[in-house]
Amino acid sequence: MTADTVFQKTLDAMREDPGVILFTALQWIPERSSLRRLFTSHPADYPAGGEKTVEISPGWLGTVIENKQPFLAGHLDALREVFADSELIEQLGCGAVINVPVLDGGSNVVGVLAMLDAEGTYTQHSVEAAVDVVNRNGSDLTKAFAAHPHDVPGKDTI
Contact 83/33 with Cβ under 8 angstroms? Predict the structure, then answer.
């Protein structure tokens, strides 16, 4: 199964529960402390290959990368505090985000899945549903992230 097939299968499951307008699969690149977009439901707005670096907030990094825990921003104000691209996110009809880290067999973060939906849509139940999808597809997701080398520079900084 190709990486894109794995990410599409995961997106399809996320659409069922917790629901999603915008979905991205982001590879964690520890050497650069950056996230590279490998897959997206909105390629015109968020093309594959783009990287996020300095605009990622320390609180987000601490939660998702260091503590390996899901992140929830249920409202636009909380989302704006974390993401520099919040205006584009809002234009797409999104105002809430769930980020779930994907861990390899050694409990290292290899990627992060980002699900965004309308403001106020996501709750703790939504986070649990997203984590369940990641857990059910963990092995395939880990392989999909591993299929992409780290030494390829990103195309943009969105």
Answer: no
The model's pLDDT over 117-147, given as tens digits with 9 standing for 90+, comes to: 999 999 999 999 999 999 999 999 999 999 9
Tokens, residue 108:
């290292």
Q: Which two tokens stand for residue 113?
A: 């899945």
Cβ-contact 96, 71 below 8 angstroms: no
Q: Are 71 and 108 in contact (CB under 8 A)?
A: no
User: What six digits make up the tokens of 78?
Assistant: 């909380």
Q: pTM (2 decimals)?
A: 0.92
Task: Find out whether 146 and 15 touch, Cβ atoms under 8 Å.
Answer: no
Q: What is the DSSP string of 65-99?
A: IIS---EEE-SHHHHHHH-TTHHHHHHTT--EEEE
Residue 93: which region, alpha, beta or left (left: phi > 0; alpha: psi -120 to 50)?
left
